[in-house]
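Exam review. A common question shows you a sequence with its structure tokens and asks you to describe the fold in words. Practice with the pair below. Do the first one on your own.
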Amino acid sequence: MINNNLVVISSADIPLDNITVKGRITDEKNLPLEGTSIKIKGARSGTTSNANGEFTLRVPAHSTIVISHVGYQAIEMVIDKEETITVQMQPGSKALDDVVVTALGISKEKRALGYSTSTIKADVIGEAGSPNVVTALYGDIPGVKIAAAPGGATSGVSVIIRGASSINYQQQPLLIIDGVPARNGDFNSNSGRIGNNGISEINPEDVESVTVLKGAAAAALYGSEASNGVILITTKSGKGKKGFGIEFNTYYDEDRIAYMPQFQTVRGPGHMIDYSTLHTGNINASNENGLDPEGWDHVTYNGTTYRSLVKSINTGGSTTPNLYFGPLYDGKPTIYWDHQVRPYLPQKNSYADTWQTAHNQTTNIAFTNNTDKTTTRFSYTYNHTEGLSLASRNDKHTVSLNNTFRLTPSLTIQTIVNYFNWHVHNRPTGTGNLLLGFGGMLGPADNGKWYRKAYKTSLGYKYVTGQNTNSLTPDENIWFGNLKNGTIDYVWDRLANNEDENENRINGVIKADWKINKDFLFTVRTSTDFTNTLTYNKQRSAIPLSLGNSGGYSVGTFNDEIYYGDAKLNYTKDLTKDIGLNVSAGYTAQYEKTLNNSISTSGGLSVENKFDLSATINPVSASSSQGYLLKDALFGIVDLSYKNYLFLEGTLRQDRTSTMPPGNNTFYYPAVNVSYILTDALNLPSTFNYLKVRASYGLVGNYPQQYISNVSYGLSSVGGYPYTTVNTGPYGNEYIKPERRHEAEVGVEGQLLKNRLGFDITYYYNKITDQITNLTLPYTTGATSILQNAGALSNAGVEINLNATPVKTKNFVWNVIVNFTHNTNKLLSLASGQNEMLLGTFDGEVAYKAKVGRPLGDYWAPTIYQTKGQNTINTNGLYLLNYQQLQNVGNSQETGVGGFRNTFKYKNFGLNFSVDFKLGGSESTTALQWLTALGYTKNTLYAMDAAHGGLSYYQVANNGAIQGVQTNATVGPQGQTVYHNGMLLKGVQQDGTPNTVVVSSPYFYRTEFNSGDASLSSVGPTQGDLEYLYVSKNTYFKFREIAFSYTLPTPILNKIHATNLSLSVFGRNLFYIYRTIKDADAEQFTSASGYGFQNGSPTSNMGNTNPSSRSYGIMLRANF
């Protein structure tokens, strides 16, 4: 009888000695569960189920056995007689004795762990068709912050675990696949193309589980590579159904551009008053280079006169073609820059039409076969994606083979091979040109579709501007104003030029387990992760060869190789009835090699569009680089247990690395953790089904990158003879040490109310010392800087995970998981005498700093200069800023992140949805600031006229400055024109008198939010940009994904010889429930790195990302 996860097997005849219990364990679909743990409660004795889910165990009469498996609810069974039983496990994250994968691929019972881990299973990873493994984990793991670069399947993803851990060096976690290291690292966006990293290439369809080791104690066995945490990916092995099986999955989804800036749709391009006169003092020019009083130009084209938005290009007319302070939209015929006559109206999808709808099709088929001696899974996955960026697509083929051979009862061999073939055509391009360049910002009167038609001439050459410019097709020259060069150049680059990548990656593992006797187990393992990437870049000839040289061609080959091996001897012994001992010792070695070669034409192509190196005009340009890394380690593990409720583990690792000189390249990383199961040790109230406390301490590292510690000198020559010169760059340091992360954590976890409510709470504190930084040196030393260990960071935080089953009936189950993390980061110290470090600047007017006593990533900016406690206004009516006393206007690190996931199941219907959130943390929203400067955004409608709050004024000249004078009259005292778009800024002049100077609203927005009018080195009260107003708090709650599914009933499945067949619809990145940044995707600002800084450079703006998108799709899964 099974009741509330307690199974009682009774009989009138009860033996008094040990009895044998046999059984078969299945999952919720009645498939065998291999590797299920069956143990006697309160003792270490136990066994695991085989590939058929079967087990045999000798137990004392009247004893209780505990059956547990990763991702399933544990079951306790009271055994009173010899019996053969069948137990069906039920999914759930509330298992009492989950078996989890830990460092070095070692599986351990979760109850024995003295540190926090989080594991996500395949069903969560694959339920909403996520393009990569990590993006499926948004909001699901406490202590982990995920930031994916918009751009789809080809873009990288950043993972930050328990706060920032380094000022200048990589913060990405170590990636382990099937127990061995794999290529990962930070992703980059070279040449404007959005790159990827190793973890984004892993096929989600082949992943069984993802486990995150967050603390130093959990990751200490990885030593110098574990300062940023560890992600353990276990691939599917095919264990489960006995005999032959087939798994099939296919899904299709579309991505549509989302979260666009909210443009104003009231007025279009232009300026009613010549912007330049506000600088020259020429108040006689009342329009823009001859525009009529309403702001229109008039041009003649093909014998007909039309009104035009701004002056034509070849007249040298408009100085401000991108400003949107012009005429109101009226729907009347107007000639546009592409020579087309259209109604003068705002375009519905002006910016969005610069992109395309993305399509993604993924199909996976896997074959499994389980016998008494072998377990095999072969999988093939094909993925085709058409990206959001124009002409962006990729085709990816993935093959996975996982074999386990039981050669003898004591010897098992496992081989795992994963092969990736990936062709990427035109990676997505970042929006830098489109949002961070005044020449490319596409306003609401424009439309991306027009640029897709006009980017090239009918002969295939690049567009030509100006009436008098040489061209083979002069009638097609673009000579009307308001053309956005940045946009049309972007379209040319996307549609005319081609950049192709062909990547082949293979990672494989061979592992042997030799059970020497009942106490000793020897494991040896070797692996490789090899990636070869070939790139071809074809730059189309932009002009005819008769008019000049253009075009180009380059090829490159890039190899990344990792070779790894380890060996481990394990000794297990019950020292007494109550005390168990497990000791392991081992050795690991790893060799990494990179080889990069590229060659390109120079000076253009001698034959138009001949993409061959032989077509170079000048000698070809070539480059080559290579790098090597060797590291090895010795490690030891000691586990002690007492009555299966008290566990103590100690580990030690000795590392050596070639990144530092011999004699200074050996380091030690100890760790210890303890776990105490209170419910087994004490007589607690029955409310508690499971209660555990734990504590741990560990030390891990982050060694310097290859070659940076080397002391090197440059070569120069005199009269052709080389000689060694001084080092005019950074100077190495042969005594540099790894950054070291000391971390302590305590936690409590439990299950209550018959396992209907669970919790896992962790407090941690880490201190990262010996920060590797560069100390600036005077040039007289012969170097610009020297590498040093100086500085320390700390993170302190709380991680909370709650799980509950609020409703559970025969036909309906509701499960909910909630997690939350609060982290406080602090820079404890820098080099002696140094109190702050400049990480970078935004637009030259916002400093991004690391300051002692503060979290990393402070924004410091000039604010408005104060005179007698009031804002100070200059003679032209604008604010003066104080550049001598910068103020802290925000910090990029959030105060909390988290999420919650709900799962509903009614009979054969399922509904899952998740929400994640971020609390606080500021971002420099530079793009939104510049859109304001141009008059694109809705807030710039304020003061556009009297109806919108504008003041009436006329202009006078005063000591070389143009000043607005407020008036109620219809004309100025000397006949001056009266305007109605004035603003009077509250404050005083520098002499303390109240401000009376009225400025036009276009002048205010264009000047106060412009790009870099001053700099941080400015002295005294200076007119600058109010950039600090666009350092914005970034809090959001996002409805991340939803999936609705239907599974065929078991009787129907049996008729078609299937074990599962389900159809689902899903959506991802759907909408914001709440956000403080309204005019963009709140995640877009931190997608390049976890905290807006990467290798010393600020990245928390919309510089080089792609637009975000919503995804909608349909999925079919079947098992036979």
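Now try the second one, then compare your answer with the model answer below.
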Amino acid sequence: MEVRGLHELVHDASLRYGSSLAVMFYSSTGASSSLTYEELISSANRLTTLLRENVVLSEHTIGLYCQSDMNLPVWILGILQLPAAYVPLNPDSPPLLTLRIMERCDLTFCVIQSDLFQRFQSDFSHHLSIALCATWSVQRLILVRIKKESSSLQSNSEALQTTKSAETDQGTTLQPDMSLTQKGHQRELLAYVLHTSGTTGNPKIVKVPHKCIVPNILHLRSLFQMAKDDVVFLASPLTFDPSVVEIFLALSSGACLLIVPSTMKKTPNRLAQVLFTHYKTTVLQATPTLLRRFGRNILREKVLCADSSLRVLALGGEVCPSPSLLRNWRQEGNKTQIYNLYGTTEVSCWACYHRIPDSLLCTADRTHTSVPLGEPLLDTAVEVRDENGCRVTEGEGQVFIGGVDRVCLLDDELIITPGTMRSTGDWVKIKDSQMHYLGRRDRLIKRHGQRVNLDTVQQLVENLPMVESCVVGLHESRRLVAFVVPLSGHPSSSEDNRTVSSSAYMHGSKDFIYSNKAIVREVLQSLSKLLASHSIPDTILLVPFLPLTSHGKVDIGKLMKMYERHRDVPVNPSDWKDMDTVKEKLQTLWKEALGLSEDVEITADTQFLLSGGDSLQAVRLYEDISNATGMTSTGLLEAILEGCFTDVLHHVTKVMCSLEQDAVVPPPAKRKHEGTVVPLKRQAINPASTMAKKRTPGSAVPSEKRILETVVVRRAGQIMEIMGCSQSISDMVEPKVIREETLTSHSDLHFHPGQVVRDQEVQQMGASVDSQALDLRVLWSSDTGRCVDASAVLLVECEKHLTSGQTRVTAFIGSHSHRLQALHLTSGEIKWERILGDRLESSATVTKCGTLVVVGCYDKQVYFLHVDSGKTWWTFETGDAVKSSPAVDPETGLVMLGSHDGHIYALEPQVKQCAWKHHCGGGAVFSSPCIHSSLRHLYTATLGGKLLCLSPGSGALLWTHSSGSPFFSSPSCSASCVSIGSVNGNIYGFSHAGEMLWQFFTNGPVFSSPSTFAFSQRVVCGSHDGCVYCLSCTDGALLWRFATTGKVFSSPFVFDGSPWGFKTLVAFSSTDGAVWVLDGENGTLKASLSLPGELFSSPVVWGHTLVVGCRNDYVYAIELTKRRESPRGSMVG
């Protein structure tokens, strides 16, 4: 039986359901529009007529350059009815990638969404001749005819093509696409043309006949029991072939296709509201990643709740989540049918399906760790073959997909052989006749969390005009190296450079390697336009030829040895101690890392990221400097990322000078009894006299009854009281009376994880956990979608009458996903969520009035949002990214914060204006300001190494201290001093008049911010050497030190330990994912917990709950409880 076209399936449905809704579009403004089936077909017919009047009849592929819109199905049907295949072009893709697709599809005509025409011209006018053919206002389309500019093709063709077989000798004319210009009946069968992503191999052009995709639609329509009452969400972009299934699954069934703007798909809360509250979506096909963006709470409460409108959830495009995870996403009583779909674009679209049994989703059985790929779909053949090509019925092998008609044309294939089976590169294990996905086994690596195919990178390098040949390899599983033979006669090459002796080659001649910087720079610049940052080689090594093995293959082993000799050139520290020499060499490495020409000026204030660099390029520069100098420095990467060129220069010079000294002066002998101890001297403090002392700024809340309505709790134990109602808060978070301890100790001892040092005493972790030890237990977690480096701020709201009132606590925290979440502390339920303009690293705060939450953003903005709804009250734009966390002046209500533009701002949210701003003298302001209320001092610090004291009322400078090292740490106030940490490893104490009182040297950079004890003159701070230090505020003497298992970036939180039987407790995290709670008196370990991700967020404590963000994308609420004794006296959780 002859298979009908996709558009014919829609025509059939329109005859039965003409007056029914076919398309619904929900705009960003909340407005909705719709089309019935009659209107859809009428509009599509009109577009087909217009196309026939303007398009050459021999054209059978037409580009479609558009975004999500109500008319999207009209545009697709109008092209299909021509008849022609549509080629979706994504306006948000890199222009060179889109240009490559247009060339390889040999496009002549393109229809462009009207409001995108200017962008199309801007992106492609330098590469294409664009002739305007027609403008159709009703259809909101512009038809253009495109032709490649010969001059552009001459310079860019090789870089844009992944194969040279379609080029002539001159590279100016492409071979006609024979697969699209054969017999008329075959041309009419093409429905659409896509391209693979290239993440798992070379990008391929995939031409899909109607007879290949229609069986998918028919079978899935039957499986899902589609009806006219169904609502299908268009979740996929047009460039992803599941979009075809979504569109025609709906429109061939008389169902309604729901379309929303792509920006709305990035706001899970709002998207869930639209899909399941407004439009009662019944069928959702999505990738597991898209589904995960909703977060567990929304999944359980809206998507997969007991009374969910969702009948069918089809997951595909990625590995299916485990049954246990799916079970956690479903609310008890949910009836949604869940399917696992598997397929490849090369055999568009799906090949297999498996319905997950309801019984498996309702049981607690954890023996099923994966979901099978399932059974073949209609007209699809699936085989598993081993490495020898033999069919596998039990065990491991590679999946092959095909069928008589289920075959697509790839790249320049001219004919389709019936029954062709495509290799997928996916390996599975067959067990009990079911296929379970294992992964891929080719030249695919995972780098910086992203997949990279080495052959794809190698082929792109080889296709560059300045490259003769190339081999790409991975050195020691981490360094991506491209060995390049430059093209003879290229303008950037010289005869001298190309004449290299075999001896020089065998010894990795440095002259040859570095004499062609122009070629290296040109290669990197070209690749930056074609590849994502994680795919760009770390090193481009120029070689005169590629050595071969006896079998005639490239000897990658010899090449890697050459790279090692080049990398391991002996370093003389004296060559790097002269500032001018270091400056010149660093400027060279800096330019090479960014692919800049030699005449580009690198000034003292030049910042790496602002010069076009990204975090991966920063890592490359870090490794290049480390290899060139022979040094290893934990602070170098931070200086590159956050500092300016001067910061990096000072850092390298200082470290190299110390290396030279180490080479002359022998290191001190290791202590024989390292870690042995002498008991501490302790000075008792009279509790009564301590309670009578005046509170110091930044200290925790005193424990007597007071008038209290709202409390704001922030990192490092910062607490602000707002308004008033009677409330006893003795058991909240305040550090109560503790005893002073004095000692003399050296800071150059070596410590092991868990050790506590008090003068000469060391206690091992575990040994210090006494009969009053505590437990940490995760209460809930909230998925934010990306890493969480910010710290939470807690808003504690109290009722006015204690007898009937309740305390409500909301945690506000931001994420690199651009989200700011408002979470109920007790349940973890999302009160509201906002997607802001860029990443959020700044920790939020709450204004003096208690009604606005304030947060800084990478998009330069400071956002003031209503605490109860998240709605925007005001935004203020600075001159650069805002990573500084705001502080509130308790007297005036001004909000103070710094910006990477080098200023500190004082903002008045009530009148929506900036009261004043002050330039801090050089360097971005990363750290957060601190206000001493009674002295009326505002302290802030910069990455330029300056600590400033300003008047909070006017911004006038009172005093400043300059240091040679950046301050990432935020200042902290006590009665006697202001303390701050530096990346040079010091913790400083300054008087409030600006005099340096003391400094304490740790063995690593200090990014942690100090936290002061409320009533005793102590400060506690972490370091990248893995330790947390408790120091005297008066003279900086070490009181105790605790060694963790990782670096300490977070700021400690000091709080009252009386509910658990202690005076004071200190909570903090280390970057290896550990959360620690110590006795504030002596630094002994009381509890610890390991989370599944790095921790740069600082914990915040209220009551018995600790909140911290994690780099695994989650925010965690952790309960701190006292362990109970077992009958035998041992401790149990």
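Model answer, second protein: The radius of gyration is 33 Å. The first strand starts at residue 21 and ends at 26. Full marks require stating both points clearly.
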